Amino acid sequence: MAELIEIENIHTKIIKCFVSVYELGSISKAAQECNVSQPTISKAIKSLESQFCVGLFNRDTRLFSPTDAAKQLYPKCVELCSAAQAICSELEIIKGGNFGEIRIGFGKVIAPLGSLLISKIVSDRFNDVNVSVIAGNPTTLHRSLLQSDLDFFICHTEGYELLSNTEQLICKPFSGLKVDAVVAPKAKFLSTQSDITKYPWTFPKVEVLKTSQDSFYLNYYRKIKTSGSVLYEIDNADARMKLVLSGKAATVSASIQSKNYISTGQLKKLPIEIDHFPLSTFYLSTKQLSQKSQQILAVLKNYIEILNR
């Protein structure tokens, strides 16, 4: 029988250093992410290689590339770091006595509306529950979910295809969101540019699936991006809307959020056909949704469907 490797003395911080170097492909970038010095990162990697008895990175070229051993170990190391973070998060909850908190994540496109509706739902129907909301891309939300920093998150259904380590992830269809491409009628570029893909545009910083079948992505977004017409990448929805209202850019917005501006003539729809934005709920099979979470989701879904009419 093969001799077992002694790993009792391997600290999770060292594993985290390895994960960071693997993901970022750079000791200097990993040092910044881990908030330590570069020599500390180098020492951690050498220590891990010594204890694992394998080389983890090729250093004989300018590219700092992972070995086959590192590629095999990486998923397990990610799981270990996530599990350690999850334990720490649960301990903080236990120490704070905050067992009634529900932590929700939203993708960047749905986040402004989702946060607004959750605030209303909680104040109207669930004022005995503490609810916190964060916004992010699918990968950052998924990582927060694995680390027990979220109970569930809602984002574009295609976000699932961007994720790895999804063995424990459950993705369920939630609802759809009507979306419009909008611009201010006073925007000067409307009279000087006939090609919509050459208009100045503002979008949030989003992860886009290159194999997406979304009509806006296929027919417009790729061309807009390629032509360099995305002049403003801004996550804050209010800031994006101010740019659009001032006539400096066009954007894509949930119909629910833009309809008042359209009815008053401050905005108008562009002649672009956009598919409904399909949303799904993501949570872990190892941590089923609480009854309160299910109730909040049901009310949220009902609100969105009413507003979409």
Task: Give the SSE map.
Layout lengths: L11 H13 L2 H8 L3 H15 L4 E2 L6 E2 L1 H29 L4 E7 L3 H15 L4 E7 L1 H9 L5 E5 L12 E9 L1 E5 L5 H4 L8 E3 L11 H12 L3 E4 L3 H9 L5 E4 H9 L4 E2 L7 E8 L6 H18 L1
Parallel strand pairs: 3-4, 3-5, 8-9
Antiparallel strand pairs: 1-2, 5-12, 6-12, 7-10, 7-11
Helix pairs in contact: 1-2, 1-3, 1-4, 2-3, 5-11
Task: Name some characteristics of this structure.
LysR_HTH_N; alpha/beta; HTH lysR-type domain-containing protein; globular; DNA-binding; 3-stranded antiparallel sheet; LysR_subst-bd
Please give a structural write-up.
Residues 10-67 form the HTH lysR-type domain. This is HTH lysR-type domain-containing protein. Keywords: DNA-binding, Transcription, Transcription regulation. The strands form 4 sheets. This protein has a 5-stranded mixed sheet with strand order 4-3-5-12-6. Helix 2 packs across helix 3 (38-52). By secondary structure, it is of the alpha/beta class. Strand 1 (57-58) and strand 2 (65-66) form a beta hairpin. The protein has helices at residues 12-24, 27-34, 38-52, 68-96, 111-125, 138-146, 189-192, 215-226, 237-245, 255-263, 291-308; strands spanning 57-58, 65-66, 101-107, 130-136, 152-156, 169-177, 179-183, 201-203, 230-233, 251-254, 268-269, 277-284. The protein is 46% helix and 19% strand.
